[in-house]
Amino acid sequence: MLTYREAAEYLSVSERTVWGLVKANQIQACKIGRLVRIPLTSLDEFIGRVMNQV
Questions:
Q1: 43 in Cβ contact with 1 (< 8 Å)
Q2: Angle 38-40-45 (CA atoms, 0-180°, nearest 5)?
Q3: 3-state class (DSSP) for residue 50
């Protein structure tokens, strides 16, 4: 489970971009109490979908 910052570093994008992808349901996020975490599998699935579109 990654933070927005860690997910942004993993994808080489800004935290704001990750936030937008979560809001657009392109990446799934889990809320744990007050914290939001992004599963690594969700990022890998997103990368796979993007790579297939190219």
A1: no
A2: 105
A3: helix
Residue 32 β-bridge partners: 35
- Token digits of residue 21: 């992808």
Query: Residue 49 corresponds to which tokens in the numbers above?
Result: 């979908």
Judge contact between 22 and 42, C-beta under 8 A: no
User: Would you give per-residue pLDDT tens digits along the chain (54 residues)?
Assistant: 999 999 999 999 999 999 999 999 999 999 999 999 999 999 999 999 999 887
Are 43 and 27 a contacting pair, CB within 8 Å?
yes
Q: Dmax over Cα atoms in the chain, in whole Å?
A: 37
